[in-house]
Design goal:
Number of domains of chain B: 1
Oligomer: heterodimer
Structural class of chain A: mainly beta
Structural class of chain B: mainly beta
Strand order of the largest sheet of chain A: 1-2-8-7
CATH topology of chain A: Immunoglobulin-like
Shape of chain B: elongated
Number of helices of chain A: 3
Number of strands of chain A: 8
Largest interface: A-B, 44 and 41 residues
Largest sheet of chain A: 4 strands, antiparallel
CATH architecture of chain A: Sandwich
CATH class of chain A: Mainly Beta
CATH class of chain B: Mainly Beta
Order of helices and strands of chain B: HEEEEEEEEEEH
Number of strands of chain B: 10
């Protein structure tokens, strides 16, 4: 049976920067240490990040980028009403914050974030400087 | 009544094959996290199913067993993009529950919003009735 990784408590968040560095070197199975889990891609001009955040709406997610540091924060309001009894409670994440170091400096003005069906998609353009450093080799 | 309803909905299995035949080729299948809540006139089963749309959910009730299945569509892989890091896999969701007496199974209803599936299981009328105390005749 496969279950999704769940949240880590806040004391560990302090260590997260170190974890991230370590985890970058670890295989996928071991890299499940923080919430939300991220999948990251790049193409020539952009870095793309995806995270599963079921139950979080647009206004409940905050994405910020400084240089190569991406931070995703979220807080969802509890929908627990009075006079309810929980028989099972597994959906425990109501608040999170995660910072990761991306391999490139990002043009933070042009970051695009959308959430649809509980999946957050970020498009993070690399800075001009990063793109300029990529030198095309032409046939002589 | 609370005593009786405690066992009304039990998680029975995740990807247990005995639940029903379910083979969606070789895709990974996940057990969604769920909350089960009792309110005054219904039970609510809330499951995290990121990436799932309403039309991709299949809920079946049969012989006291409620089975949730949600198919996650392949997210289109953009050309020329290179994976830098993969921390989670995408797959379908599957979980089933045993539903006890006292549920009006004809009226089970489900909605999906923001990647969260909510299944409402109304209590049967009998279960909602207050018990009338019976006194001995003088």
């Amino acid at each position: 049976m496969l279950t999704r990784n769940r949240l880590f408590s806040s004391p560990l968040a302090l260590l997260q920067g170190d974890f991230d560095r370590l985890l970058n070197a670890l295989p996928f199975e071991m890299a499940r240490a923080t919430f939300p889990a991220l999948n990251v891609w790049e193409d020539a001009d952009r870095v793309m990040v995806e995270a599963e955040l079921p139950g979080f709406r647009n206004e409940e997610i905050d994405v910020s980028v400084v240089g190569d540091q991406l931070t995703i924060r979220g807080q969802r309001t509890s929908d627990v009403e009075e006079k309810q009894t929980f028989y099972r409670r597994e959906r425990t994440t109501t608040e999170f914050e995660r910072t990761v170091t991306l391999p490139y400096e990002i043009d933070s003005e042009k970051v695009d974030a959308t959430i649809k069906d509980g999946v957050l998609t970020l498009t993070l353009p690399k800075t001009e400087a990063v793109r300029a450093r990529r030198i095309n080799v032409r046939n002589g | 009544m609370t005593q009786a309803t405690e066992t009304n909905i039990n998680t029975c299995c995740g990807s247990d094959e005995s639940c029903e035949t379910a083979t969606r080729d070789q895709r990974v299948r996940f057990t969604p996290a769920v909350d089960i809540i009792e309110a005054a006139d219904e039970f609510r089963l809330i499951a995290d199913v990121p990436g799932v749309r309403a039309e991709d959910v299949d809920i079946a009730y049969k012989n006291g067993r409620l089975t949730l299945r949600a198919a996650v569509r392949e997210r289109p892989e953009a050309p020329n993009r290179r994976l830098l890091r993969r921390e989670y896999a995408v797959g379908d969701f599957h979980r089933s529950f045993t539903v006890g007496e006292g549920i009006d199974t004809q009226k089970i209803d489900a909605t999906v919003a923001d990647g969260v599936l909510t299944v409402r299981l109304p209590k049967a009328r009998a279960a909602k009735l207050h018990r009338v105390p019976v006194r001995s005749a003088e």
